[in-house]
Design brief:
The protein has 345 residues and is of the alpha/beta class. The protein contains 13 helices and 12 strands. Bound molecules: pyridoxal-5'-phosphate (PLP).
Length: 345
């Protein structure tokens, strides 16, 4: 095992399993730009039904799926509200400005969570020289908040807040599967409160490529058109959809193991005096560790662990991040913990 890297940099590093590859190799395909790929169609129907939405659209990435939602929901010059640590604000290369010509207004959150009661001062009055508040976005689970779950009660309040004001409500649910497994609240019960929901197959679900954007028939019809404009019209994409479909059918419930590995890892590392971990935020598969007190930068800590064949990545300024996924076993996590203890205890 010591020759092999234990890759905790992200849950996107997983490789398709033999069974998943077989499903992909055997997939029935057609030209999806003509709507004729049966595997893509089956994936879209499966995901729409799982989320309780009228339609789902298979797209190449989570970025595209979030950005298609903004494109379909907004007009040039609108304003979109999201939490300041949101993936859509930090890691999508200013796409709201580039693709939709909208302005993002960020609000502060605690572990990624902001509340309806805090929003009124952020909503624009209908005055011609102000932008129109058009969409509010939530991220669940929240990536930069260490995989914390956005509580359903707060989502319900935000949804009611949006409805009252005719603001659209979007969910970046790249890891909604994790939220659903951790809380045992079905995907549908989360999704019903939103006008659009994005989910990723390429994170903890272990598929090589793809996301879906879901919502009403009317919304998905718009997103479908824009997908073509964005360069996301694909042909025999059933090969990819088969991997995603396999993941949805086989890899959701097992995420529980990833959450257990994360809790174990976080608890063990919290015994290292110079590490700070917000154990309450470790609710799913992500662990953020603040290394400020070690006097080392996250990059230096990463380099030390790399020498021991343990790969981790930079979280935020003073933090490194470790993600649990289906290509890392509990034994490997234990091995990684031992290496951390050897170096820092
Ligand atoms: C990974 C991720 C996405 C999608 O990013 P891609 O790079 O397109 O895969 C969107 N939102 C969140 C919260 C994510 O973690």
């Amino acid at each position: 095992m010591s020759q092999q890297f234990i890759d905790l940099r992200s849950d996107t590093v997983t490789k398709p399993s033999k069974a998943m590859r077989e499903a992909m190799a055997n997939a029935e395909v057609g030209d999806d730009v003509f709507g004729e790929d049966p595997t893509v169609n089956m994936l879209q129907e499966t995901v729409a039904s799982l989320l309780g939405k009228e339609k789902a659209l298979f797209v190449p990435s989570g970025c595209m799926s979030n950005q298609l939602a903004l494109k379909a929901h907004t007009e040039m010059g609108d304003e979109v509200i999201m939490e300041q640590d949101a993936h859509m604000f930090n890691y999508e290369t200013a796409a709201p400005a580039v693709m939709s010509a909208v302005q993002v207004k960020t609000v502060p959150g605690i572990r990624g969570v902001f509340r309806a009661d805090d929003l009124p001062p952020h909503i624009r009055p209908a005055i011609y020289y102000m932008p129109r508040t058009r969409v509010i976005c939530v991220e669940n689970t929240h990536n930069r908040a260490g995989g914390a779950v956005f509580p359903l009660e707060e989502i319900k309040k935000l949804s009611a807040f949006c409805k009252e004001r005719e603001i659209l409500f979007h969910l970046d649910g790249a890891r909604l599967w994790n939220a659903s497994v951790a809380t045992e609240i079905p995907m549908k019960e989360w999704a019903q409160h939103f006008d659009s929901v994005s989910v990723c197959f390429s994170k903890g679900l272990g598929a090589p490529v793809g996301s879906a954007i879901c919502g009403t028939k009317e919304f998905v019809t718009k997103a479908h058109k824009w997908r073509k404009v964005f360069g996301g019209g694909m042909r025999q994409s059933g090969i990819l959809a088969a991997g995603a479909l396999y993941a949805v059918q086989h890899n959701i419930a097992r995420m529980k193991e990833d959450h257990e590995k994360a809790k174990f890892f976080a608890k063990e590392l919290s015994s290292i005096k110079e590490f700070d971990i917000d154990l309450e935020s470790v609710q799913t598969n992500i662990v953020l560790v603040d290394v400020l007190k070690t006097g080392k930068t996250p990059q230096e800590v990463i380099a030390l662990l790399n020498k021991q064949n343990v790969l981790i990545s930079v979280g935020t300024f003073t933090k490194f991040r470790a993600l649990m996924h289906l290509d890392v076993s509990m034994d490997q996590v234990k091995y990684a913990v031992d290496k951390f203890k050897q170096i820092f205890q």
